[in-house]
Amino acid sequence: MEDSPPTFLFSFDFDGTLVDEPPHPAIDPRLNPFLESVRAQGGIWAVNTGRTLFQTLDGLAQHQLKPLPDFIMAKERELYAPGPFNRWVDLGDWNQRCQKEHRRFLRTHKKFFKRMRQFLENETNAQWIEGHEETPGVIATSEEEMGRVCVFIEDETRNDDVLSYQRNSIYLRFSHAAYTKGSVLLELARHLGLTRDQICVAGDNHNDLSMLCPTVAAYRVCPANAIPEVQTLVNAHPGGLIGTGRASFGLLDGIQRLLSAEREEPS
Ligand SMILES: [Mg+2]
To answer: What is the CATH number of domain 8-76+180-264?
Structure first.
């Protein structure tokens, strides 16, 4: 990191926003030059993804994204900065607080998770996933089935302010309501001393909704492959734009148009 504070932060979702799936081209060839230009102008960039830290680094290497991000927000809630010896390390005590709250969250929601498993077994073909030190999740067999799963959760937890979940198409992971892509991004901005007017975010799926809010970032972009809910939110307020093209093609188009509209606007 440079000594001088950053002037602007770009925070991008990974899958479906930075990188596309086959048969589509994975990344726009203009993406790396754009990331270089962000750096050259005193800005920084971050990935804000549902992937784990390891999966994110793997994806960055696989698609040869350069320069590497200045920060990584993983699992929709963890915050990492580059440390010594090419390692990524916790930024402040956010991750510790997050882990502690999630351990408590798991303990206090055992009964709900049991009901959830019963519902999945009896009423769906969806799969329950649970790992060591990990919040449980669901993999549905279709978007429609995941829609039904979400209705069940909403009904069961109407008076629960703590239980939340992050949904990405047919995947869902339970989480503490205080930890989302939006809240982890706000924590990073606080750490960097940046305000919403200095932040641009981009995402394409349900789990991006919490960061695609005008209260989080003044500039909000989604690619053309974004789900309807994301497109609606992005379109709902000034400073939001749906880019033409899928994933990074739409991302770069949207950013270009947003920033040129900004320059043209009389101050
Ligand atoms: Mg995505």
So the answer is: 3.40.50.1000
